[in-house]
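Justification of computing resources. Each target in the renewal requires a structure prediction run like the one illustrated here; the chain below, 248 residues long, is used simply to show the kind of job we budget for.
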Amino acid sequence: MYHANQLLLSIGATAIFIGLASAQPPGAPDPPRTAQAAALFDITGYWIAVVTEDWRFRMVTPPRGDYTGVFLNAEGRKTAAAWDPARDEASGEQCKSYGAPNIMRVPGRIHIAWQDDQTLKIETDTGQQTRLLYFGAPRTPGGDWQGTSKATWDSVGGSRGQAPVGSLKVSTSNLKPGYLRKNGVPYSASALVTEYFDRADPPSGEAYLLVTTTVEDPIYLSQPFLAASHFRKQADATGWNPTPCQAR
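Resulting structure tokens:
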């Protein structure tokens, strides 16, 4: 009788196991990974700007009316011609050229870290700006210099046996109007910013971050504004020097 009961218990346990297994749909997908776990490359750390293009627009303040390389429409040219840094200072708007459409072009250092597993944070020492890149639903309303940024890993399949490769794509809207350049070249609250962040690791052993930016603005631009910014990875926070925005 004992062995018969044991056999019945064993058969019952096996039936329960088979029932549970059959309850799982075949080929059920794994739970979605967090943005941090799904990262295509390590973007975190301290990076210093490498000014390889547009030196005269980035390292010094260009004169009023110099908007070479920016396709302004008539309203944009009119607004750029009215640039008055003293007025910006008096109104407390020294940070107009430090908004998301231009901040990656401002020479200095940036610090990138995961604020949580679905949010990247970019801090700049020049201008002391903070950008939050949300892979989930944005938790800020925007309306400030950095607006609302939605991030995704834009990947393509790797070759057999290799991990996928690709870029970090960031789309930003809900911006406070500001400047594409410090000399008053404008963007409006309707501007849309699309950025691609890519990491390069050449044989030299140094790591580089390339940020390509497209700004579309139906109010002031007749064509999208395109730019590229480069950064070199630092080992630590050496040289980190937070300084406030400057209007001139």
